[in-house]
Amino acid sequence: MVTDADAGQFAVPYLGIGTVIDDRELAAVREVLSSGLPLSQGVWRERFEERFAEHIGVRHAVSVTSGTVALELVIRLLDLGPGDEVITTPQTYQATIQPLLDTGAVVRFADVRADTANIDPDRVAALITPRTKAIMLVHYGGLPADMDAIMRMADEHGIVVVEDAAHALGARYHGRPAGGLGHIGCFSFHSSKNISTLGEGGMITLDRDDWARRLRLVRGNQADLLLTAAGTAFGDSTSPPPGALFPGDAYTHECFGVRRAGTNATLSEAAAAVGLVQLDKLPGLTARRRAVAARLTAELAEFEEVRVQPVPAGVAHAYHLFTCYVDPARIDRDELVRCLAAEGVQTFLRYFPLHLLPEWRARGHRLGECPVAERQWFAEHLNLPCHPGLSDEQVELLTTALGCALRKVIRR
Ligand SMILES: Cc1ncc(COP(=O)(O)O)c(C=O)c1O
Questions:
Q1: Which residue CA neighbors atom 7 of ligand 1 most closely?
Q2: What is the pTM of this model?
Q3: Dihedral, CA of residue 194, residue 170, residue 69 and residue 128, to nearest 10
Q4: How far is the CA of 85 from the centre of ligand 1 (A)?
Q5: Is 281 a catalytic residue?
């Protein structure tokens, strides 16, 4: 299988630098560096979080250093442990559920829909028990999952829904942005994603004030309860506990609160400043992704042996990935991948079904548990290059190569 490192040898690379950097990002970094202001925990992070929350339509956006860290902090926030169950999709990047490995919670994989590759609400319904605490889903490739059905079930059973929206910045579901549809959203600003904060970064979006407060404390390695110089406390309680050991004007670092394990996952000021610029560019970047996807869809319409991920009415796809499925009776998918590579087109298959990874098999998961995801991965599924870094010439080359490769491999 080809890797990122091989991209240079392809006329049409799969990812390139997915986010198109120009003078505006360079100016933003220059402004931060020449401002004389601290390079951490300052105004740019504050502005980026405010703008992001506004964009998603939630009360809080908490920036962190990656999408993986966003998911890790959220899983920690939910206090999952032995006896708890989490329902998730097998068709996502491993980071969506990786931190659950250490919690002792039981993970149940709900198979995906054959058309969209998003988690199937009927499969979710069949897996809900009184122990189900959370549903962790992904908007696969940037196509929102069936959130109305999922949220109805979640509300009925008191289950928290976490959206892994790493692919879905720019996607909308009946007028609302992905990442603001469930209880918590997690975004990635890795260099391959729909916007980037200097290569790495992430964001957690949510409405609940108490959760946002806790996430901010943990993200900044702060104590649960801090006393201010004036002796007033903020934290879980609003005044120092009885019998406080220190007067308010002493150094009072976390003497009273229950301390939780924290970490430092602070997004730097330069990264946040670039995030602000990229957020401004998002409509243009998304439009370009959609235009490339439209060209690919038009090219594939000629071939009844290939179907593309459909976009239901009322839904706007963010096209982090362009996904199609071949008819395995007519096309050997692996031969198509090799043929495209020979034509200069780099492709990827995203993702290997999670329940078949060794860490999940070691916990009792097995082949046959999610037949749709398995069938797609092993014989049908293909992701084609679709990003704003592609020039018009590259898009032309891509569609021509796709047509040529398909004509070669289809069994008549
Ligand atoms: C679906 C999904 N979730 C989470 C992540 C993790 O994001 P990051 O690379 O920022 O840690 C990724 C990144 O590839 C992803 O694709």
A1: 67
A2: 0.92
A3: -130
A4: 22
A5: no
Tell the residue number behind the tokens 């290997």, with chain if given.
Answer: 352
Domains of the chain are 19-220+262-272 (3.40.640.10), 281-409 (3.90.1150.10)
Element (H, E) at 27: helix 23-33
Eight-class DSSP state of 355? G
Say which amino acid occupies 87.
I
Residue pLDDT, tens place only, 208-265: 999 999 999 889 887 655 444 344 444 444 455 555 544 444 444 545 555 677 899 9
Cβ–Cβ contacts within 10 Å for residue 199, how many?
A: 14
Would you list the DSSP string of 151-217?
HHHHHHHT-EEEEE-TT-TT-EETTEETTSSSSEEEEE--TTSSS-STT--EEEEES-HHHHHHHHH
SS3 73: helix
Q: How confident is the model over 64-95, as pLDDT tens digits?
A: 999 999 999 999 999 999 999 999 999 999 99
Are 97 and 69 within 8 A, CB to CB? no
188 lines ligand 1 (CB under 6 A): yes
The response to whether residue 164 sits with its C-beta less than 6 Å from ligand 1 reads yes
Among positive and negative, which fits the CA dihedral 171, 175, 180, 183?
Answer: negative
Q: Is 373 in contact with 91 (CB distance < 8 Å)?
A: yes
Q: Answer yes or no: is the C-beta of 185 below 6 A from any ligand 1 atom.
A: no
Ligand 1 pocket mutation pick from 65, 71, 93, 186 by most atoms within 8 angstroms of CB: 93
Nearest to 85 by CA among 106, 109, 112, 115: 106
d(CA 87, CA 109): 6
